[in-house]
Predict the 3D structure of the following.
Amino acid sequence: MERRRGTGDMSSLVSLVVTLRPTKPATVPAHLGPACQAWFLDLVRAADPALAERLHGASRRRPYTVPSLRDTGSARRGQVTLDPGQSVWVRFTSLEKRLSAVLLEEVAPRLPATVLLGDAELAVETATADAEAHPWAGQSSYETLLQHHLLSSATPGRAMGLHFASPTTFRRTGGTFEGMRVPDHDLPLPLPDLVFGSLADAWEAFAPVKLARDVRAFAAVGLSIRRFRLHTRWVNDGRSRRWGMLGTCEYQALTDDPLWLRLLHLLAAFSFFCGTGRGTTAGWGQTRTG
């Protein structure tokens, strides 16, 4: 069993990809986000119980994301069949230095031989945070993103594309209208203010340097959608049932202001680690540029 680790020092942003192979054929729910999250927390707990307790008990936004299993094939009636001839993978991302260090130095080198996700037993094959070894793996830091995007002398283009690789939705706060009570609700649509507002919220929660700009308000009036290729999926993750959208969306800034363009491209790059929308710790909102 090969386990590889990306190079670099104490990165504050890490994406660790773990490749798995079913030990025998198994049929499991298509969305295993909560099961993958539980395994992630178990791995962290074995390395650092206090950190796991903090992650599990956090009431605000949590500094990690976990998708469901990937490369599982097409779902049928909410189920997928895993075959020993086909590897699958799961991804753990971290948005803070302590958790990143635990993932790289404690979790990756000491993964168990097998894991049970749903009713499927899977053998652990590889683990890597090396972007050259897997397209969804990688390491960076807030400082690196700032240097590359915000402090660069080059002015980025007005267009930026995002790929929503797992079901994505946004929570909207209800209210009252003409005496009617409108409840909180989900909106599986990548409107500019919802997407970039979500990314800005994650940056403000964990980055050492704040943006000091109202990104959500700007995106509502300063960004348009050029084109998109999206579809929706009904997801039952065992905790709740709701619609999510997947696909690609290209945005166009309606200004040539260099600062705003740099901020938007910075947040688009950050999406690779933080995800978008709600439920990113349990399978939702995996995002990257493209």
User: Anything to note?
Assistant: Residues 17 and 91 are 4 Å apart (CA to CA). Confidence is low (pLDDT under 50) at residues 1-9. The two ends are 32 Å apart (CA to CA). The chain has seven helices and 16 strands.
